[in-house]
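Please, structure for the following, as tokens.
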Amino acid sequence: MAYPELIYLYIEDFGYCFQKQEFVFSSNYDVRYAKEGDRALTISPKENPLQGIYGDGITNISLLVGSNGSGKTSVMELLAQPGTFAGNLKRKPPERAASMGWFCVYAVDVPDRGESRPTAYYLEGWNARLVSNFKGEPSDAIGSYSCYFAVRGRELVRFPRGDISDKLQLYCITLNTA
């Protein structure tokens, strides 16, 4: 199993700093999100010509650059403590909270070269309405949400929790004991 990798963050609206802003954190995936219209999220692996340039333990380096007050710390706090941002959004009036939201995508279980199984991804965020192409997923939930999924064509298919959580649990135990 490869290390979980943050690949994408989209912020619809925080009420400050960012509106309809994308952050791509990986050169290993082509991530596209339709901010208007059908709100479909598409992800496909791609060849990274810089793969291995940083050595075996580092897969990618991403920078957040901007002037003071531009939101760099807000992005880092969101990624480190998504529950804090969810708590802040819960205190907004319901009609305002419905127009706000964000989501981020991680690649969590990448098949080895030659394996036929799909890559497993993890998505977390606020406001499930932001991503429309989940097969069988409710798209009207306002609030915090998360799920594991795979990409099948233009659909995002949710994994049953047990299919991948055992692998992630093992990975977390390995990290904590290393």
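Confidence is low (pLDDT under 50) at residues 165-178. The longest helix spans residues 161-177.
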